[in-house]
Predict the 3D structure of the following.
Amino acid sequence: MATLRDLKGRIGSVSSSEKITGAMKMISSAKMSKATREIKRLLPFRTQLESIIGNLLGADAEFSSPLTAVRPVKRATIIVWGSDDGLCGAYNVSIFKQMLDHIDALRSTCGSGVEIEIVPVGAKIARAAARLAAPGIIVSPAPAGICSKSDADAIKAFTASVRTAFESGATDRVDVVYMHFISAGRQRLVAEQLLPVVPAKAAPADAAAPGLYILEPDAQTIFETALPLMLLSTMQEVFSENRASEQAARVMAMQSANDNATKLLEQLSLEYNKLRQQSITAELLDILGGQVR
């Protein structure tokens, strides 16, 4: 049976845990707000690029790019984003399951003989991906300096390496798997094709509205300039979405831990008060019994 001293120690430990989870929730909320501001900052740039590509699609001009080259898929690359830190609930587990589902979908689309290369971004998802032992699956570590917290320069270099691998024929298709940020309480798993770029999907539905455009210097030059920029903006957005979603998951995990700590603290406090009341009652009975004798 627990003593008053044991219960008091447990109450102190739970109270400290409650304060720690509360502080971690506040820190994660601040980081999530910073990541969402980055997403909002990137949106106008990407929207403008999509508008330019949409205008090109609506113009009577011919253009092409190595980034849109479609060829038989013998080797496909899946870049999957996760977290570098823990304490974010089932965040990495959900992404890992989505990656497995996407591998099955890719094999059903491109054939069972397709070789799949997985490039995990984030220490936690990299550790999970390293345990994959299946024929036709290769797990390649992300380039040095690339993690879930990479800055703009590192993202630019990473995008360039992915583009070079596709253009050189080292891979025939590049897909991305990540968590799309919708709100603090809602995120959605996304698995989509990054390369080759499908121009029809790169432009919004209303971007190619009828109109007269003067293309300077020419459609091909504009297309060759705008498409790599859109690829870079997409990669930057994915990194920002992943950061925001990770912090949102951590906020929810810390909130759940804080709620559990509060409930446990209430139960321990009630048990402590009951035991303390019993102790006081027993002492009073002993005093009264001594006076009677």
Summary: The mean pLDDT is 84.
